[in-house]
């Protein structure tokens, strides 16, 4: 049982060191999330006069009203009314950002097919994601007007890819910012701490003490997990400051804590395995970035993982952060956490953490130089 | 058996193809101050790390107060207090926190921790700085904190790796004083040092290690007698006179000489004073201007140079190369 009490002693020491640098640690952990939210979170929110081409295949009175309504706001600027072929070449030449095609059946949806189509190039995704809600909203206005005339369904706007149901990009990106703060905090925090402790000789003085070397690992793992969990929660609070919310409420908050706990645990264990085998801070910084950046991007940090090209998809599926991120998005954006997602997300996170923690006990090297 | 604190039998340590320690045996008695001396890369630190249980010997055995240091490593670690060469204090933590953490790691009974920490702060003269961050302390204060930290579990053996390297003269003398006081209480002290006068002033016995082997072991005066039964003659000359003077003295007086820069050194056997005066007179007759002339008993410097050679060794020597090789594997 001394293993456990020795680990607690070491964890306490780590927390004291953490506490003495509290301000620096917090600023460092919030800097990157803040920049991301400020720069990316506001992408597209203030777009105006986005050039679009309209292809009106319905050519009826209501479709003309719809077009007038679209043009009536400053959001989009209809450059031309044309046929599909010309519109596509305009899109390819970059003269318009999107094409709005009104199907012949407008405003009726036929056989569940949408009656308004939005075409755009992936490179313009961020702008388009800002105007999509506007197009959707305008189309559904016509849907509700028509409903009085006994129409069954409102027109459906088809677009692909989208950022999710009723969200803006900022809310979308906050989930990945939380994951980033947690995962980066783990990899950099625990990793640097072990290398610096080795360089200063602290590891040596732990090793000459009558304790099991696993206590060093376990103590650092415990303290590191608590610290990066804290970073994740801080990033969430930063999200609140910028207007994000948790659609699921308090229960959702608990789900988020649970998800980032497993991210903290597993990524701290990875950091300890890797850093215990690397001598210098400089080399570790390179390795740490090689670990954090791909796993973060692959998790669908900036756009949905489903829109990755086919050859990247398997990597995204194999990335544990994908599941943590999508879980947080379910909770924050959709407002409900489907049972099937809970099972997938948590079983993957738990199994991954278990494997990595067990591996860390085998692979942690307590070298002194 | 019972009066030996550390018993080392033929330990070897190999890193890859590099043999850092080539079969060392020695015995340290309870209550003595034992010095390990050697140039950089000689195998001092490797030997110390094996005694501490940080490295496993490739072969051979180390017994600490009757316990095998591999099989009973936890028991052995409890018996040994260790002060590292790097001054290991947590700079961000207070002196008190530094001590409390190590008291816990050495399993000092919970109800005694506070008492011992207070006592340690008093011993180190740091009572009024107890709650200050240790990083703000001077080098000497940090070293004192480190020393009392290694004594928290009340060990019977204290190992000090270069305890005074980098300290100013006052702090060094203070450190010697503390070490002697601990030794007076019956604690066995093992230290490595690169200061020869330190080993001379402090140690009961000294082992000189080089190239992974023990070159000599004994009390300071025993070692000095190995260099010369008599005295050491040192003559400092103008550089242009050195060659001429060397020839004259070695031909006329049949002395074996060594030359270091503008200093000529030679051993003079018993009945030395007569001879040394004759040499001085002869040099004057030959019109060789002598800048300084001294006859003295051998110092630890003489012993060290004689046993390990005079050449400089920098620290990127074999031992570091070996540890890098180990890292890559």
Description:
The complex is a heterodimer of chains A (369) and B (329). Chain A has two domains: 2-41 and 168-363, no CATH class; 50-158, abc type-2 transporter like fold (3-Layer(aba) Sandwich). Helix content of chain A is 64%, strand content 7%. Chain A has helices at residues 2-20, 22-40, 61-72, 84-92, 125-147, 169-200, 202-207, 213-241, 250-275, 281-298, 313-317, 320-334, 339-363, and strands at residues 50-56, 76-81, 98-102, 116-120, 157-158. A five-stranded mixed β-sheet of chain A has the order 2-1-3-4-5, with helices on both faces. Chain A is elongated and about 85 Å long. The two termini of chain A are 29 Å apart. Chain B is of the alpha/beta class and 329 residues long. Helices cover 39% and strands 27% of the residues of chain B. Chain B has twelve helices and 14 strands. In chain B, the strands form three sheets. Chain B has a six-stranded mixed β-sheet with strand order 6-7-8-3-9-10, with helices on both faces. A four-stranded antiparallel β-sheet of chain B has the order 2-1-4-5, with helices on one face. In chain B, strand 4 (59-64) and strand 5 form a beta hairpin. Chain B starts with a strand and ends with a helix. The model of chain B is unreliable at 314-329 (pLDDT under 50). Chain A binds chain B through residues 2, 6, 9-10, 12-13, 16-17, 20-21, 200-202, 204-211, 279, 367-369, and chain B through 49, 52-54, 74-75, 77-78, 80, 82, 84-86, 88, 90, 92-93, 97, 101-102, 104-107, 133, 323, 327.
